[in-house]
Write a structure and sequence with these properties.
Elements: E1 5-7, H1 23-44, E2 56-58, H2 72-82, H3 94-109, H4 118-127
Parallel strand pairs: 1-2
Amino acid sequence: MVTRLMFVIDPMYSKRSQPLTTQQRDEIIAWKLHDALLICLNEYYAGWPVRKDGWKVTFPALADSIFSRNETGACVIHIALHFDGKKLKMPLTKHTISKVKWETLYECMKLQGNFSPHARDALWRLLAPSDNISEED
C-alpha cells in the first residue's frame, strides 16, 4: 500500500521464458482485483489513506525453471509462503516444489480427525525422499 506497487506473480513466468501471451489478461485481472480491494478497504476501514491513482504493476519472474500447469498449484503455495514483498526468501525450483507438494500433503493429512496411515508415509517421503524407490511426484 505504501509503495503503490502491485505484483502479478505467476509461476508460469520464468527467467528463461519468453513474455507470455497471458500477461495482458493477467494485468486486466490484477486491476479488477485491485479495484475490488480498494472498495473493501474504503468500506470497512474508512479513514485509511488509500488512493486509487499512482499504482504500478510489475510482473516479476521468480523462477529459474519452467513449470507445467500441473505444478503451478505447488508454486503458488511456495510463493505465498516465501515471497517477502520484493523477492523469494527460498528459490522456486523443481526440488522445492516437490518438497512443497509433500509438505502440503502432510499438513492436510495431519488435520484433526484424520486417522489415515498415509500421513506417516507423506512425512517419511518429506524427510527422506531418496530412500523412496518410486520417485514419482
